[in-house]
Amino acid sequence: MTDFSLALSEDQITVRDWVHGFAVNVMRPVAQEWDEREETPWPVIEEAAKVGIYSLDFFASALADPSGITMVLALEELAWGDAGLCMAIMGSTLAMAGIMGNGTPEQAAEWIPACFGTPDDVKVAAFGVSEPDAGSDVSSLRTRAIYDEAHDEWVINGTKTWITNGGIAAVHVIVASVDPALGSRGQASFVIPEGTPGLRMGQKFKKMGIRASHTAEVVLEDCRVPGRCLLGGKDQLDEKLARAREGVKTSGQAAMATFEATRPYVGSQAVGIARAAYEYALDYAKERRQFGKAIIENQAIAFKLADMKMRTDAARLLVWRAAWMAATHQPFLGGEGSQSKLFASEAAVHVTEEAIQILGGYGYVRDYPVERWHRDSKIYTIFEGTSEIQRLIIARAISGVHVR
């Protein structure tokens, strides 16, 4: 008798239904408002903190699920509620992942709680990698961190762009070059605490979608942080740099370690958007009548919905597989993390576009949510690794060739 099963446990069902209730009762009623305001939805984040969704305890509990499924279930439900609000609530987890992936247990204990604050004093966190001249090419970061041995401080200069919660975060995790000659192997991650002089918000971006999520530049000008803010510590960094200079293979890029761990989480959000659009279009097609019958009775519409359902479910299965592999420490030999993110993001774009087509003119106006879901979906093919980069990762994984 096999142990294989796709059935959710009682605990997983409880979490899914709890988060879905929050999405229905808190997120959906205000989603259009915050999309149009294009501001950080502090009341929604505070409510999420009040009920326990936006909290270290919840994330720790979800991540402790040995199957890896609980977190992606929760993320799908939040994105089903609204992707912009979901990003506002979940944006801090990228910084948390950066600290967990690169820091010591002591650093994690100190800085991860600071990413969230408390229900009475809610905080957010940011993870800064991308730069104006370094998007997909993470190895070309220009942000520089120089060690001031006399004061045991790191002096950081540079500009980060497209940063979720950039400039408004209580904790910024910044990836910087400490030895430019080594490229990506000469990079390290730093925690910049709230109120540190030399860090300021640059341009706040007006975006096509996920407008409720704050996205901005982070400018660092002679920003000094104590030596203890180097994630992993100075001794570990020195050893890594020494190995790199000797030509010994290192454990990888500081940024990439974070992205690999979070790609199924990004994919699960895309699944939530796709599911929302599919469900809305299905209900509409059953009710909308043309030529004396419901439009779903036409193959042209019914077949679209069949494909939308198929792509959404297939995306979810790829996400679940990648989440399970990550939780059980299975190597992504076929680029499974990238597969989940790539397929889910492109499925979300396709499904939301088809939803607009099914609604016709109604799908194109803001009175109906499908146009917002389509705008929201597009970013998932861009951030945390473009579709092109995901295909590159998969191609290298399956071929063993350094495809360019």
What does this structure look like?
By secondary structure, the chain is of the alpha+beta class. It has 3 domains: 10-122, Acyl-CoA dehydrogenase/oxidase, N-terminal domain (Butyryl-Coa Dehydrogenase, subunit A, domain 1, Orthogonal Bundle); 125-245, Beta Barrel (Butyryl-CoA Dehydrogenase, subunit A, domain 2), CATH 2.40.110.10; 254-399, Butyryl-CoA Dehydrogenase, subunit A, domain 3, CATH 1.20.140. The protein has 14 helices and 11 strands. Strands 4-5-9-8 form a 4-stranded antiparallel beta sheet, with no helix packed on it. Helix 7 (92-102) packs antiparallel against helix 10 (254-287) and helix 12 runs antiparallel to helix 13. It is globular.
CATH topology of the largest domain: Butyryl-CoA Dehydrogenase, subunit A, domain 3
What Rg do the Cα atoms give? 22 Å
Query: Which band does the percent of strand residues land in?
Result: 15-25%
| Unreliable residue runs | none
CATH class value of the largest domain: Mainly Alpha
Kindly state the number of beta strands: 11
Please tell me the total number of domains: 3
Helicity level: 40-55%
Taking strands numbered 1, 2, ... along the chain, how are they ordered across the largest sheet?
Answer: 4-5-9-8
CATH architecture annotation of the largest domain: Up-down Bundle
Distance between the termini: 45 Å
**What summary fits the major beta sheet?**
4 strands, antiparallel
Q: What sort of overall outline do the alpha carbons produce when their principal axes are compared?
A: globular
- Element order: H for helix, E for strand: HHHHHHHHEEEEEEEEEHHEEHHHH
Give me the number of helical elements: 14
**Could you give me the name of the CATH homologous superfamily of the largest domain?**
Butyryl-CoA Dehydrogenase, subunit A, domain 3
Q: Given the helix and strand composition, which structural class is it?
A: alpha+beta
Oligomer: single chain
Name the average pLDDT: 95
